[in-house]
Design a protein that fits this description.
single chain, 179 residues, mainly alpha, three-stranded parallel β-sheet
Length: 179
């Protein structure tokens, strides 16, 4: 589960006065329906069957960021793979508790771990039942770690706009206006 979703759920559950406000949540790189064949294929290649898998860094970079030869990501993130090596799952219970606007994106056809397509994006968005609004979409030609790719530069502009909308809507007490 993305840590931001957990934090937003816990924030919503805490009835006490808050020292800060949470105006919105941006999520990408996780879905509701994993591709079991991806994990099974890798586990079958191993003699022992660990509960989690750590990939050789060159292989992980290929999966997460796509090939360096494709030029879709700056070379620097490839050096950070070891720090980014964690396994995620999606826990709908946390998502159901989020009460702020959500912006969600999933890599399109090149997502190696989550089933991708309009249906899966809609399924993910639908779980945020208490959110006043969920903006969602597929990120075309983005690798799994979309945030670290060149393809995400346009999305950063949309994320910034969404963040500004959330901050203003929070300030005037109208989260439902996030468009």
């Amino acid at each position: 589960m993305p840590s931001g979703t957990i934090a937003a759920a816990l924030y919503a559950a805490d009835g006490a006065a808050k020292a800060h406000s949470l105006s919105g949540l941006v999520i990408s790189g996780v879905g509701t329906d994993s591709i079991p064949e991806a994990k099974a294929k890798i586990r079958n290649m191993l003699k022992e069957k660990p509960p989690t898998i750590s990939f050789p860094l060159d292989y992980e970079n290929e999966i997460m960021l796509r090939s360096r030869d494709q030029g879709l990501s700056d070379p620097e993130p490839y050096k950070q793979s070891e720090a980014l090596d964690t396994e995620m799952s999606f826990d709908e219970d946390y998502a159901r508790r989020v009460q702020v606007p959500v912006m969600y994106g999933l890599a399109e056809a090149v997502e190696p771990f989550w089933k991708s397509g309009d249906k899966y994006v809609q399924d993910f968005a639908a779980v945020f039942e208490k959110s006043p609004r969920v903006k969602r979409g597929l990120m075309l030609e983005a690798p799994h770690y979309a945030e670290l790719s060149y393809m995400f530069k346009g999305r950063y502009a949309r994320v910034f706009g969404f963040s500004m909308e959330c901050a203003i809507a929070t300030a005037i007490g109208r989260l439902e206006i996030i468009g």
